[in-house]
Amino acid sequence: MPASPLLSASPPGSASVAQLIDERPIGRLQMRVFLLCGLAVFAEGYDTQAIAYVAPVVAGEWRLAPGALGPTFAAGAAGLALGALLVAPLADRYGRRPILLLSTLAFGLLTLATAFASGLTSLLALRLLTGFGLGGAMANAIGLTAEYSPARRRGAAVAIMFCGFGLGAATAGALAAWLIGVGGWRSVFATGGAGTLLLAGALALWLPESLRFLALRGRHAEAARLAPEFASTAPATAAAERPEPGLGALFRHGRTSMTLLVWGVFFASLLDLYLLNNWLPTTINAAGLSVRLAIVAATLLQLGGIFGALTLGPLMDRFGPFTVLPLACLVAAVCIVGIGLAGTSAPLTLASVFGAGVGVIGGQNCNHALVAGLYPTTMRARGIGAAQAVGRLGSILGPLVGGAMLSLHMDIRLLIVSSAAPMLIAAACMAGLGVVIRNAGRSETARD
Predict the structure, then answer these.
(1) Residue at 447 is within a domain
(2) Which ranges in 342-379 belong to alpha helices (H)?
(3) Rounded alpha-carbon distances, angstroms, from residue 33 to 195, 262, 273
């Protein structure tokens, strides 16, 4: 198969590292990386959702008007997008480890500082700044996991690692219910910030740098210390590889269509994910089911996402992402339509919600694995960060779209059914991405 213009040739040393990782079983060093990256996204999930759980208490304590915290929610999402776009790409120059470590330290300190917010303005500013750390950490946890994963297991490794985010969000809800009664809403952020700072210490002690990054930068002695077997395979005098500067590298060497389609997938998928996360309980209750069942449905959506990540990741590795992921998007669209047509049938509603979680949330976990494999090591952090930044625009737009449709008093069944449209767009973009990759004459995942 001819070389693809989408990826530059592997520089000296990188191929031997890729071969070392791909041909050997997953070892203790890799499991340590996966665990620490999973804990990092767990902390991010906790922090991201904590503000939603304490919002009613904050609004009551500060006597805020309904909707006054909306800009604060948006500031957090905007900060995460900016962090993914501006902070995460620094890892292509300075390494995955320092950017992940510093980003985790930053959002840990800022989460702790949120416990001392004195008013709406300071809370908004702190959420915006916290987002920068979250965006920088998330992209590099994904990148580092991908770079320590054998190509044959990359989809499963990244998808399962990213389940930490959902588990962190769920933990925030469980702890908030108890902590608010014990120490008030501020204790939720104090607990999250303190825990994240402890995690930053663990990252400083035990998180290694990417072997692939070290090889590309000519730092073979460091790589050999991490993995002694690497010493026998790496060229002793391999030249260091410098990354192409700027985000423009994502559009060079025939990557333009690939990058735009990746962005389309992330935008549509995260738009639907956050639309469902924010409005599913409301719409199900409006359709005639009880509040209790609406809450159960919201929980099933997250559980479906975890189940989806655990099943779609291995299937993606076995059958290829461009076979599995478009089908996952279509399943999600069908299940969302099922929610809208279920009416007051609780069994059909709950089954459809679970299926939507499998396709939307589980599929998005796998999307992270896909984008990590599409770009070479020299620009992987930029590729992941840019896709996440565009996706965050969708995550901001999704709740706004849902709110606008509700304010227009749209028929609730039509509202839910129309929410399937973004997943059809994601499926089309994913299928188009598969065509672009196949026409480029390359394998479905990068091996450098």
Answers:
(1) no
(2) 346-357, 363-374
(3) 19, 26, 27
Full residue range of the structural domain in which residue 302 is found: 14-439
> What pTM does this model have?
0.83
Name residues whose C-beta falls within 8 Å of residue 445's C-beta, 6 or more positions apart in sequence: 151, 154, 321, 370, 373, 374
Six-digit token string for 281: 């309980």
- Distance, in Å, from the CA atom of 358 to the CA atom of 364, rounded to the nearest integer, reads 9
Give me the residue label for tokens 């060079």. 252
Query: Looking at the domain assignment, is residue 7 inside a domain?
Result: no
The pair of three-digit structure tokens given for residue 46, joined into one six-digit string: 């906790």
What's the total number of domains in the chain?
1
Q: How many CB atoms lie within 10 A of CB 344?
A: 12
- DSSP type of residue 409: T
Which class for 303: exposed (0-12), middle (13-18), buried (19 or more C-beta within 10 A)?
A: middle
pLDDT tens track for 31-45: 999 999 999 999 999
Give first-to-last CA distance, the chain, whole Å: 16
Decide if 34 is inside a domain.
yes
Q: Pick from 398, 397, 297: which is nearest to 338 by CA?
A: 297
Task: Tell me which DSSP letter residue 249 carries.
Answer: G
Residue 419, Ramachandran bin (φ over 0: left; ψ between -120 and 50: alpha; else beta): alpha
CATH code of the domain containing 63: 1.20.1250.20
**Which residue is listed with tokens 């996952």?**
328
Give the pLDDT confidence of 133-175 residue by residue, as tens digits: 999 999 999 999 999 999 888 889 999 999 999 899 888 888 8
pLDDT tens digits for 345-389?
889 999 999 999 999 999 999 999 899 889 888 889 999 999 999
The three-state secondary structure class of 357 is helix
Residue 375 in any domain: the answer is yes
Q: Which two tokens stand for residue 345?
A: 């049938």
Rounded to whole angstroms, the Cα distance separating 316 from 170 reads: 26
**Across 24-28, 42-46, 115-119, 320-324, least confident range:** 24-28
